[in-house]
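Box 3.1. Reading complex inputs
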Amino acid sequence: MRLVTLDEIRAARRRIAGGAVRTPLLPCPWADDGRPLWLKPESLQPTGAFKIRGATNAVSRLAAAGSAAGVVTDSSGNHAQAVAYAARRYRLPAVIVMPDVAPDVKVVATRALGAEVILVPPADRKTASAAVADGRGYAYIPPYDHPDVIAGQGTAGLEIADDMVELGLDLDTVLVPVSGGGLISGIATAIKTLRPQVKVIGVEPELAADAQESLRRGELVAWEPARTYRTVADGLRMTLSPLTWAHVSAYVDDIVTVSEDEILEAVRVLATRARLVAEPSGAVTTAAYLFHPDALPAGRHHVAMVSGGNVDPGLLARVLTA
Amino acid sequence: MRLVTLDEIRAARRRIAGGAVRTPLLPCPWADDGRPLWLKPESLQPTGAFKIRGATNAVSRLAAAGSAAGVVTDSSGNHAQAVAYAARRYRLPAVIVMPDVAPDVKVVATRALGAEVILVPPADRKTASAAVADGRGYAYIPPYDHPDVIAGQGTAGLEIADDMVELGLDLDTVLVPVSGGGLISGIATAIKTLRPQVKVIGVEPELAADAQESLRRGELVAWEPARTYRTVADGLRMTLSPLTWAHVSAYVDDIVTVSEDEILEAVRVLATRARLVAEPSGAVTTAAYLFHPDALPAGRHHVAMVSGGNVDPGLLARVLTA
């Protein structure tokens, strides 16, 4: 299977400039002595998650080619708003197919970005989005299973590599949340091509550790949704695709897991010490740093990807007063 | 009175590189139609506030000159941790004089940055810090009343001007919180020198509106601490000095005020829509954007400085569930 290249990630960076925020690395004076930590706050992207990178790259290519009358995806998560936001930037119509059980707030937020939202029973999502693609000539933008999406997410890794030079950082370990694997595929490609000595470590909830099982068995393993849906990290319930598995197995050094309690404590630490509103899925890497140093490689200097910040305000309030 | 120059701010930028974070401008898709808003999140600085810029510039100059055996300041706020952090970077000993009524968490956080904390009755702060300066040969770093501090804070304005070019932004209005005036003095100097057409607007709580009264009367007016201490924006209770007043009267277009309720609502909006933990003092500019468009200049494109994020977790939780 053909893997995404560094050149494709560099081209993606040129396309997304001005569409996605060039996020800084944030030093953490509250980190453990002798184990410096930097955060990469993708929660600060305009729709609150890294997904805007891949969506913007994919939509930009379609807009430049003039090959699609619009774009369509099926998602009730961060990818939905990312596609809507990117489509508006390139003045392409966007249809987002959502399960009719999606929270109203997500529907409203996606419509506010100018997208048409079609609500269908969960089981009909794939057929409904395929019908829009066929019927209207819209291009389908998958949440992770596409080279343009992976290349877009990889721009975050390119920025980390650039910051290592600019700030004179001697990084050892980059921690990345894993769900469908788009983010870690892109980041690992960028980091391992430019800085092969840096370890790229995936982080999953214990309750959705299918990528860890895949990496350890050496073959792609999928867990049933009924199993992964138990975790509070609602952005980390997907499973790798053959394409992301090919990148993960080629580039990722290891995948570690964190518990539900550790995830919520990391949400609290990020809010109170780093002043970042992180969603549980975005906090798993900080949880791994804080609670599982022994499971991580021996290197001292860590980066934790804070992949998103779309947390329920009530949950955040409960975590802050626990 | 001699004003800080653009060259001094540019020199400060070179000094603080790697010490302060180069914060991005964050676009806000949730902003009002036709009134685009960008946030400058100084809450993401390592000690949670813009103060690190001025402190790092001042300490860097002292370290380069070799003229001081250490540094001392009196503060229980964001300036205290900024001086401690900067001193550690330049391996200078730091003494922070705090009132003995300061919350224990601030004492602990400042000591964790390697500073010596001396607790004295509030009325003795000035004499205690002067005694350390005289007795140990330490340089006193004031929170705002110094050209090096103003030049350091001005680097945030230089970054905004750079981002206007880099991102192709046609900004109209920059909103800056006002307390002692160090931040707005530096930012206004940078912006008005490079982009005189951009309006620089100060924002104060109604309960601490001494700078607004000064600007409207054309002379420096001070309010009694007993009066300004009523606001929840605990970082905005200071009064301008003759030096900052000289910059404000030369460069600032207007100063507007916000209510206590508006400040807390802006804290909520920043957490839920921009995924930023802001302290009340850091949220006043967003409050002005949200609730007082008629008091602002006619231009459409706004930047709001989010000056800090050191909010009490209990207050943040209450705001999130209100």
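In summary: The mean pLDDT of chain B is 96.
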